[in-house]
Amino acid sequence: MTLLVSLLALLPGASRAQSPRLSVGSSDVPPRLAARVAQAVARAWGTDTTGLVLSWGSGSLAQVDDSTAFRLLGHGEDGWFVVSVEPEGKPARAIRLRAGRTIPRAVAARVLRPGTRLAEDDIRLEPTLRWGPPPADSTTPAAGWLVRRMTSPGEALDRLRVEPPPVVATGQTVRVLWNRGNVTVALEGTALNDAAMGGSVRVRTGQRAGVVTGTVTAPGLARMP
Predict the structure, then answer these.
(1) pLDDT tens digit string along 49-72?
(2) Which residues are CB-neighbours of 62 under 8 A, at least 6 positions away?
């Protein structure tokens, strides 16, 4: 693929301040057509065009009118699509496209040791190109998160290295809910482990069930599957 170059996509009816900044990997793609394709990618991913990057495969669309109809084919796994351009009265042509987004990535600003908590100056944000749709979990690590393993400066602060602080502590009383249709059963017991929001907690209830496991939905509250 050719090197990425920056352009300002000027969309009809949009002010210059609102125009998204795009990058395309081919100077042979008309800017307005590239902007329309970017909008189609954003719709497919349920997002907007801010920070979107389009890297085009081999082939030229230089002679294609900006308003030419096209179809965006594929689901965008790892960012890959095919754009089928359909000029009026001419055979359709296809060109491969990879789409991604420049997002801020949290990395370690210095050496971080397991068992410590992140401070604000432990975190550095740097722009990173991520191919494919936005991640399902886009939570950015923040001060107070727990360091799980030794992390060197510049390494990503992902869930392998850091985790959110617990909202349930070992020994805390936890209410566990179980739902089936209109039936709700509530149990109370003692947490046997620390757990963050969305994490798994084991609760000793003192009931016949003994120990149950639930997913933390709020401080002191969990839900059984």
Answers:
(1) 988 999 988 877 878 888 888 999
(2) 28, 29, 30
